[in-house]
Design a protein that fits this description.
Layout (H helix, E strand, L loop, with lengths): L1 E4 L2 E5 L9 H13 L8 E3 L11 E3 L4 E4 L4 H14 L4 H13 L12 E4 L19 E3 L1 H13 L4 H16 L3 E7 L8 E5 L3 E5 L11 E6 L6 H10 L2 E3 L1
Bound molecules: adenosine monophosphate (AMP).
Length: 244
């Protein structure tokens, strides 16, 4: 689902469900688009695609850890330390944070998808710097969803945002060649963000951008020696992943 107003993105969501659940899921996604705190959309697009069950890769959700930050600068320093732990040079981590802070598209606005960055030298590798790479075809099984939402609510984390972000981060972390992901939302009311990897899990910072700021984004740090970029993008955009 993708909801926009005056061509600006308001919300988006992905679901991977059985054929019988399609109608209910569409209705749930329409309600979600209408209820978004950024306002009522004037266009909602829903695409339904058949997925071959044999192609679905099942993975476990990344473990969640929260790091408290008293403001976004403190959050960014903490995020930088996590990126350094994963082998990313301090200067490259710093530049990556600045890239998202300034708007990563060539017009200094939000990209629709993620930046792909060579973790060794900070070089951008995504074929289209406006669109970026859009991760798609992923979801959580119902039992894992219940468990995750219970945990998020107990930790006072907003499940509306975090559920989908954890599913996306889990998929990205399990694709060969991924080293780390850095993300904060483009929603001006939502200031937390995360660094995720298979090694560290989903490390959430309570503040990663100033309130009121509409710039956000995602950077996938990758090791191009491990993967062919085209294949990597194809897996992120097309291969179905189910978090169990
Ligand atoms: P959001 O987490 O929805 O607030 O999105 C934050 C930013 O992440 C957006 O501005 C996009 O740049 C990027 N993004 C959103 N959805 C995706 C996706 N499915 N795949 C890759 N990047 C995304």
């Amino acid at each position: 689902m993708r909801a926009t107003r005056k061509d600006e993105h308001i919300s988006g969501a992905e679901r991977l469900v059985s054929e019988e659940s399609v109608a209910n899921t569409v209705s749930e996604l329409v309600k979600r688009a209408q209820a978004h705190q950024l306002g009522t959309p004037d266009e909602v697009s829903i695409t339904i695609e058949r997925v071959d069950e044999k192609l679905i890769r099942k993975v476990s959700a990344l473990p969640i850890k929260t790091i408290q930050a008293s403001d976004f600068q403190e959050g960014r320093k903490a995020a930088m330390l996590e990126l350094i732990k994963l082998g990313i040079d301090r200067g490259i981590a710093q530049r990556a944070i600045e890239l998202l802070a300034n708007g990563a598209s060539p017009s200094h606005s939000n990209m629709r998808g993620a930046v792909l960055m060579d973790f060794r030298n900070g070089k951008r590798l995504e074929p289209d710097k406006y669109r970026g790479v859009r991760v798609s075809r992923m979801d959580l099984v119902k039992s894992a969803e219940r468990k995750l939402i219970k945990r998020l609510v107990a930790e006072q984390i907003d499940p509306n945002y975090a559920r989908d972000a954890i599913v996306l981060a889990t998929k990205v972390a399990h694709v060969e060649g991924s080293v780390a992901e850095l993300c904060w939302s483009d929603d001006s009311n939502y200031t937390p963000g995360y660094v995720a990897s298979k090694e560290l899990g989903y490390v959430r910072f309570t503040q990663l951008k100033p309130k009121g700021c509409r710039l956000g984004g995602r950077i996938f740090f990758i090791d191009p020696r491990e993967v062919d970029i085209e294949k990597y993008v194809e897996i992120l955009e097309r291969q179905p992943f189910l978090v169990t």
